[in-house]
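Usage

Read records sequentially. Each one opens with the input sequence:
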Amino acid sequence: MKYLIVIPARAGSKGLPRKNIYPLCGKPLISWTIDIAKESQVGDILVTTDSPEVQELCRRTSVAYLDRPKELSTDDVPLAPVVVHAYKQSNKQYDAVITLQPTSPLLSPQDIIGAVKKFESDPLYDSLLSVVECRHSVWKKYGFDNLQEINNPKVNRQSAEPLYIGNGAIFITRTMALLQSHSRLAGLISYWVMPEDRSVDIHTIEDIKLAEYYLGVKK
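and closes with the structure output:
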């Protein structure tokens, strides 16, 4: 299959100013994801951004980028139309689109390769997302101020069937499903499990510190 890897990198960020170029261990945040995508060698890379700084970084590192229009760069725009726009502007035909987010700098090339292999293992899969396993007690609010446990409260943690939480690192979507549904998750959805130490999602300075801790441990 032929893949387009889309890396969305908006200029604005409320939690961490200039987040996508914020230094992580001395390297701009988005550079981690770009380098991992390159190393995976699973598809063509296209960064979609309204940030002049990210665009300059792409030019210096010979990475294709798309100048994202203003109407797709506001806080309230979801990623699906951004990815659809990037695919259409690529002017090429791809079987599927992989979305990698700069806020997930600890994923590995092996995660991308493994996710692609699992996605291709069954032609019925329309999409795939990366997840982290959760065996803790999970509750939801109902009524005015009441809680109800989602998973089985009658078994211990080791015996409980795991729940999965999307970690935001990898999305794979067949092109036809993406264009028809305008969603990155459509049809029959598969998943790729990643460990907690590769599932850090950067939105605050505390997340940066946690990512630097894990990177330091791996050295």
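Summary fields computed downstream for this record:
- The radius of gyration is 18 Å.
- The mean pLDDT is 92.
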